[in-house]
Amino acid sequence: MFEDAPPDMSLFRAIMDTNFWGSVYTTRFAVPHLKNSKGKIVVMSSAASWMNDPRTSVYNASKAALTAFFDTLRIELGSEVKITIVTPGFIESEITQGKFLQRDGNMEVQQDMRDVQVSSIPVGSASGCAQAIVNSASKGDRYLTQPSWFRVTYLWKLFFPELVEWSYRLSHFSRPGAPHQQAPSKKILDFTGLKNVVYPSSIQSPEIKTD
């Protein structure tokens, strides 16, 4: 939670440096060469840029900034350089495996918290997402969201923003004083046994690199 973060904001700055400024700096130097070669830019943003999951406020902000920057750059560059903005939902990765940044700056696997955040939402495969990105960039698409059904969440946020916020508050938080494992989103996942159905086997084990 943002209010529980340590006073030292450098951890948050590192997220912005990686997710936003890392792409901005490399694009600044690449644009002249991309113009000459008729190249393309593929932007790895996230559906988190509009679906603002709680507990990931700065990450969400970094992805929203990334999308806004490249939307603007597309206007400035016109047809000289094609830009495809990729906004994945939940895809198998170390994040959906439960790897979270801690207050002390270290990474730690917390699959219980992952279950709270992801709940019973189907997690797409990395290989399927990669293939979709290649196909989309080759066609010159402006946007790509994977899994494709996740695009409906943009409409939810656009037309029912208060309902989206209310559902997050209801599902992602346990009652005051209770551990986060008591959040309804995790209870639903555990009660239905959907984890083995909607989570790829690759993210069900906590054995990942933590350095």
TrEMBL record:
GO cellular component: cytosol; membrane
Molecular-function annotations in GO: 17-beta-hydroxysteroid dehydrogenase (NADP+) activity
Membrane topology: Single-pass type II membrane protein
Major localization listed first in the record, in broad terms: membrane
Keyword flag Cytoplasm: no
Gene3D superfamilies, per database record: NAD(P)-binding Rossmann-like Domain
Short name of any one Pfam family annotated for the protein: adh_short
Compartments reported by the entry: Membrane
Keywords: Lipid biosynthesis, Lipid metabolism, NADP, Oxidoreductase, Signal-anchor, Steroid biosynthesis, Transmembrane
Stored PANTHER family: 11-BETA-HYDROXYSTEROID DEHYDROGENASE 1A-RELATED, RETINOL DEHYDROGENASE-RELATED
Family membership noted in the UniProt record: Belongs to the short-chain dehydrogenases/reductases (SDR) family.
Protein name: Uncharacterized protein
Biological source species: Gossypium armourianum
